[in-house]
Amino acid sequence: MKTPLKLAVQKSGRLSDASLNLIKECGITFPTRIAKLKAHAFNFPMEFLYLRDDDIPGYVADNVSDVGIVGENVLLEKGVNLEVIERLGFSKCRLSIAVPKEFEYHGVQSLQGLNIATSYPNILGKYLEKQGITAAIHEISGSVEIAPSIGLAEAVCDIVSTGITLVSNGLVEVETILESQAVLVSRPDLESEKRQVLEQLLFRIRSVQTANNSKYILLNAPNHSIEEITNMLPGMRSPTVLPLAQEGWSSLHSVVKEDDFWEVIERLRGAGAEGILVIPIEKMIL
Ligand code: PRT
Ligand code: ZN
What we know:
Blueprint: E1 5-10, H1 16-25, E2 38-40, E3 46-51, H2 56-61, E4 67-71, H3 72-78, E5 83-87, E6 93-100, E7 115-118, H4 121-131, E8 136-139, E9 155-160, H5 164-168, E10 171-180, E11 182-186, H6 192-212, E12 214-222, H7 226-232, E13 240-243, E14 249-257, H8 261-270, E15 274-280
Parallel strand pairs: 1-3, 1-4, 7-8, 7-9
Antiparallel strand pairs: 2-3, 4-11, 5-11, 6-9, 6-10, 12-14, 12-15, 13-14
Zinc ion binds at residues 52-54.
């Protein structure tokens, strides 16, 4: 067995389930109870370290772990030198500046001289500097959204997902300073044996992600529409075309991207496609 690749994941929180689900979808099995700090995968050369998300960049940089799954927001805030291997597409959020709804905001200049509460002083500091704004940054570790109502600050800089927290605290988002999602990070100086394991893991992650972003589609079409429909269905190479028992009709099978899905379906129907079936794909190797 190869030297295990150490992967740091969040022990409990918004990243944990999605991180562990991704690993499971890669066919890697491991003990399900996260009672300990460490666990070994049963069928892949990998060891898990269950940590607080804030500690993940530092532990990877300090060689305690080889790779980790963490939000870009935390990675940038910690400012450690790690390689971003892959954007993972989950735990999407943004880091935004918000002000009370009665505040008369006229662009970033309105932030001049304010007190701004945040858990992200480094990212905010760099942003304000770039914008030429001087403001007092108050670092607080949680419940940033209540800072204006308790008189600690006139503005906040916090993570926003649905925006419900801001609205329910009478705040309005005025500037987005970072778009974030979970990323797989690595030490830049990974030993070659571990890099090979990482490549294997990455291959599986990409197959899972491609599959999740695609749908398998089957449809019936009159033979005279096959060419028009084929042009709408690029598929992996080109669609499979099989004759139906009914004279003059065929069945076409292909793969469509999740993002283009509804638009493609409408165009297919317009071209005479019938009996359209859409099936999820488990893995996709390109
Ligand atoms: O205990 P540990 O330190 O490991 O976890 P944590 O409490 O520091 O982090 P956690 O689990 O809350 O979040 C982990 C990561 O998830 C963050 O670093 C982000 O990358 C990502 N993420 C995605 C979010 C959100 N969405 C999110 N909505 N992190 C925090 N929030 C909070 C935000 O701080 C605010 O209080 O949710 C509130 C806003 O949500 P909406 O939906 O009301 O806008
Ligand atoms: Zn944290």
